[in-house]
Amino acid sequence: MAMKKKPVTGMKDILPKEMAIRDYCIGLIKETYKTFGFTSVETPCVEHIENLSSNQGGENEKLIFKILKRGDKLSSAVDKLVSENADSNEKTENNTGEDIDTGVLVDGGLRYDLTLPLSRYYANNANDLPSPFKALQMGNVWRADRPQRGRYRQFMQCDIDILGEPNIIAEIELILATTSLLGKLDFKNFTIRINDRRILKAMAAYSGFPEEAYDIVFIILDKMDKIGLDGVKEELLKEGYGEEAVDKYLGLFEKATGDVDGVRFIKDELSGFLDEAVADDLETIIKSVESAKSAEFKMQFDPTLVRGMSYYTGPIFEISMDEYGGSVGGGGRYDEMIGKFTGTPTPACGFSIGFERIVMLLLENDFKVPGESEKKAYLIEKGMPSDKLLKILEKAKAEREEGTLVNVVIMKKNKKFQKDQMSNEGYTEFVEFFKDRDI
Predict the structure, then answer these.
(1) According to the model, what pLDDT value does residue 101 have?
(2) Cα–Cα distance, 153 to 8 (Å, whole number)
(3) Do 420 and 338 share a domain, yes or no?
(4) 438 inside domain
(5) Which end of the chain, N or C, is less surrounded by CB atoms within 10 Å?
(6) Which residues face 27 on adjacent strands?
(7) Residue 269 resides in a domain
């Protein structure tokens, strides 16, 4: 069978130009977040299947790359599966209601995000960590999604989280740190959209939707930017909800402005359905960030913001790039997830930037990594005598110690093509060495 040179579908090879930008971004991310008190951590890329399938990851749980048991455990599992299905061709379920392959054949999976692994990490190591704990985690995640432009099955995520802090100072610090980073990458005029899951629920309750309908209502609401108010109304009516409830619900969105006045309107209108402290906290977050920000962006109250993860419990936020369209990050408060591991409620809040999309935007805008050392190439004629080669290497060593990047390579027959290739990689100076000339 012939070997395949292309990557597996949904994965990609990273060429040097992109890798240079990625390395620069990673360095800048760590440097910037460190100034806000965040500490780097790392979790395994493989998680227990029980954790990944715990109804915390929303639609992402349908995209898990599952890992079969190994060795004798797999053999025993297969024997058990064959025995249980000997008299039936129908799909069998184990006693937890999971598909038999998950319950019997599979014991692990590749992580689909970094939040759930971090929650397990904190639950396991909390006694050895400060409280609150400010964590920075960068790493690849995997989703068996349909590949498309800018979306791969393996991609880097970059998260900052504050664990053990119930106060909204966590939200404020997360937003300030993230926007400071984006400003250093020369992104301007972007928008931080902010909402609260409790406001979403209060708006639905105020309008007369039953609690069991919230998930469907929010899924439809999340399409607002694509289908508009009329489209949302049409889909809600198709689901069978009463026109009076739908009109009352959509009326809130028509009247709520995208600033603190909009938050105050929601607070007054939802009196009796929403704890006033929720709206007050949201107003404080917006005002505090606007007052202390170091980058050019705007804060926007957006009552249509949903965020797909079911684990969010409070404020949620998302980064919209006004110049490029689309979201490049988001996050929110998830006070209940760590407690599912420990049995003890633990406040937690996080913000993730879309690392891959940011790198893609930088590449498309021909971003130049600032402060790169001068790149010089030594082109050596083939067959150079050893005594002259030694002098060349000593010369290269001296220049490298002064901070110059020196690449020593053998001169090719098509020297012009070789130089053109290296120029495309950022080399600006070429020094040629010939065996019949003095060094």
Answers:
(1) 54
(2) 9
(3) no
(4) no
(5) N
(6) none
(7) yes
